């Protein structure tokens, strides 16, 4: 019970973190998986048991921190670069590039039925749409699923893209080169990744070309094979842009499209590509569609009430006013 936790919760987190099988048999714990993963699991389990044998009282939070929390960082360098690398890694001192299959990813579990259905569709289908209000986990869960597939070797690269549509501000007036201008706009995507893997690990994977975050315009003309590709803020795509993006799919790719139709920054009267694509493709058996509602909001409880309040325009207010984006 100490290691497995109530209802095997801790065993499940440890299993997700290290990609191993763990089960009890005749009072003993049995581990099954790659040798390196088993050794890491054994070290953590022995740490917990050692503290217990010394008579130290530990709550579930401390046990979880030992079994899972330290697994969030990558610690194993490799001698060669991934095959899917598209550019040479820049020098980072004494550090070596990381192998994605050695990633240590913080475990993520769905918090409601819609989120669980969303993750199941991402695992089972090559193209999935997730749409609905901000705060429902659309982008975060897609990123979590992508990092997990990257770690498992199911894909070789993670590509995250967004359409660059200005919401009243002008990117051209921001200081710096094009990458510096885009960094604030792409920050929500970075935040999602940083909550799953360590920032320094992300930096090294980005330098190795394993993780790429780029504007949607950079996708034109490419074929993204063996990749997990996420199109975020898809409500800001035109129908032509959406068609361009969806036809980038290559062999072995998984694509997840997320967006909130109520927060479009497209010019007034311009048809959006998100709902158009869902209407055209949702009947395909290899395409998944999950619609989130305010009931699925997992941020502060007040967020759902705020969203509902803005669904009813104030007296004299225009209903098609742009409201900005959000994860």
Task: Write out key terms for the chains shown.
single chain, Rossmann fold, 327 residues, 8 strands, six-stranded parallel sheet, alpha/beta, Ribosomal Protein S8, Chain: A, domain 1, globular, 2 domains
Number of DSSP helices?
10
CATH superfamily of the largest domain, by name, is P-loop containing nucleotide triphosphate hydrolases
Output the CATH class name of the largest domain: Alpha Beta
| Main beta sheet | 6 strands, parallel
Q: Per the principal axes of the C-alpha atoms, what is the gross shape?
A: globular
Kindly state the percentage of residues in helix: 25-40%
Number of strands: 8
Can you tell me the CATH architecture of the largest domain? 3-Layer(aba) Sandwich
CATH topology of the largest domain: Rossmann fold
Walk me through this protein's architecture:
- The protein is α/β, with parallel strands linked by helices.
- It has 2 domains: 6-72, Ribosomal Protein S8, Chain: A, domain 1 (2-Layer Sandwich), CATH 3.30.1370; 102-311, P-loop containing nucleotide triphosphate hydrolases (Rossmann fold, 3-Layer(aba) Sandwich), CATH 3.40.50.
- It has helices at residues 9-18, 35-53, 60-67, 113-124, 138-152, 178-194, 199-207, 239-246, 273-281, 301-311, and strands spanning 21-25, 28-32, 127-131, 157-162, 211-215, 227-231, 254-259, 287-291.
- It has a 6-stranded parallel sheet with strand order 5-4-6-7-3-8, sandwiched between helices.
- α8 links the parallel β6 and β7 (254-259).
- α8 (239-246) packs across α9 (273-281).
- It is globular and about 70 Å long.
- The two termini are 37 Å apart.
């Amino acid at each position: 019970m100490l290691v497995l936790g109530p209802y095997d919760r801790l065993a499940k987190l440890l299993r997700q973190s290290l990609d191993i099988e763990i089960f009890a048999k005749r009072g003993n714990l049995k581990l099954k998986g790659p040798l390196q993963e088993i050794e890491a699991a054994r070290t953590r389990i022995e740490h917990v048991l050692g503290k217990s044998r010394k008579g130290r009282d530990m709550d579930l939070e401390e046990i979880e921190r030992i079994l899972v929390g330290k697994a969030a960082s990558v610690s194993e360098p490799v001698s060669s670069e991934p095959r899917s690398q598209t550019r040479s890694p820049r020098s980072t001192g004494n550090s070596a590039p990381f192998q994605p299959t050695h990633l240590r990813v913080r475990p993520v579990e769905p918090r409601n039925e819609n989120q669980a259905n969303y993750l199941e569709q991402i695992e089972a289908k090559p193209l999935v749409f997730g749409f609905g209000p901000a705060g429902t986990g659309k982008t975060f869960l897609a990123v979590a699923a992508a990092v997990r597939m990257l770690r498992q070797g199911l894909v070789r690269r993670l590509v995250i893209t967004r359409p660059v549509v200005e919401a009243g501000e002008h990117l051209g007036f921001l200081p710096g080169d094009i990458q510096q201008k885009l960094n604030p706009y792409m920050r929500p995507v970075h935040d999602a990744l940083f909550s799953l893997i360590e920032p320094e690990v992300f930096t090294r994977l980005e330098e190795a070309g394993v993780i790429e975050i780029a504007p949607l315009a950079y996708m034109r003309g490419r074929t993204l094979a063996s990749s997990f590709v996420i199109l975020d803020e898809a409500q800001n795509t035109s129908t032509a842009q959406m068609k361009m993006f969806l036809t980038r799919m290559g062999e072995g790719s998984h694509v997840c499209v997320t967006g909130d139709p109520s927060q479009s920054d497209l010019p007034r009267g311009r048809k959006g590509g998100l709902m158009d694509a869902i209407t055209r493709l949702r009947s395909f058996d290899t395409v998944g569609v999950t619609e989130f509602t305010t009931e699925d909001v997992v941020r502060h409880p007040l967020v759902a009430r705020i969203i509902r309040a803005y669904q009813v325009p104030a007296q004299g207010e225009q209903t098609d006013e742009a409201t900005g984006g959000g994860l």
